[in-house]
Amino acid sequence: MALAEPGRFDDGAGEPDPSLLHISMVFVRPAAQRTGVGLPLLLHIFDVARSLGYERVGVWTARENSPARKLYERAGMTPTGKSAPFLSSEQLQYESLLGGEEGSRPEVAR
Description:
The protein is of the alpha+beta class. About 20% of the residues lie in helices and about 40% in strands. It has helices spanning about 40-50, 65-75, and strands at about 1-10, 15-25, 55-60, 80-85, 90-95. Helix 1 links the parallel strand 2 (about 15-25) and strand 3. The two termini are about 20 Å apart.
């Protein structure tokens, strides 16, 4: 399951940002994690974002959440360099610019 919503300026605290679709959460059943189901979810979000006119997709994730960070990187997302405290840890921001070319996205194993 993946949930995305319109993004906001000021890292979510400001007015709506019409160029940004924010990924609020991605959940994969524990038994299905690391089986390749997360990448198609993200790529679908990218396709929907593109079709709705968004220019970029962003997400925040915990620094120590290596599996999520690897997933976002496999989907072509890159760290923005922004970080923020989160509970007893730190979260990092990832982003992907959406070009019009679907062929430039990562391949999904079938």
